[in-house]
Amino acid sequence: MNQKTFCLIAGLIFSFVAVLHLGMFILGQSVIVFGQQTPVWSNVVIALFAAYFGYQGLKLRK
User: Tens digits of per-residue pLDDT, 17-35?
Assistant: First the structure.
């Protein structure tokens, strides 16, 4: 696997995760980590990080 393919796949996966977390925020779902329920607003923070990583992955493949 070359660098372009890796960056494309990683960018798409991170973008997909960002969309899922935004959907979870809109629907009011929370994430459970080690049996502890996290606040719903944490989905926005996770979505922002995932969207940034997705953008960088797709930008780096060029």
Answer: 999 999 999 999 988 889 9
Handedness of CA 25, 30, 32, 33 (dihedral sign): positive
pTM of the model: 0.86
DSSP string, 41-60: THHHHHHHHHHHHHHHHHHH
Other C-beta atoms closer than 10 Å to the C-beta of 5 total 10
Structure-block tokens of residue 8: 């494309």
The encoded tokens of residue 23 equal 């959907």
* Residue ranges covered by each domain of the chain: 3-60
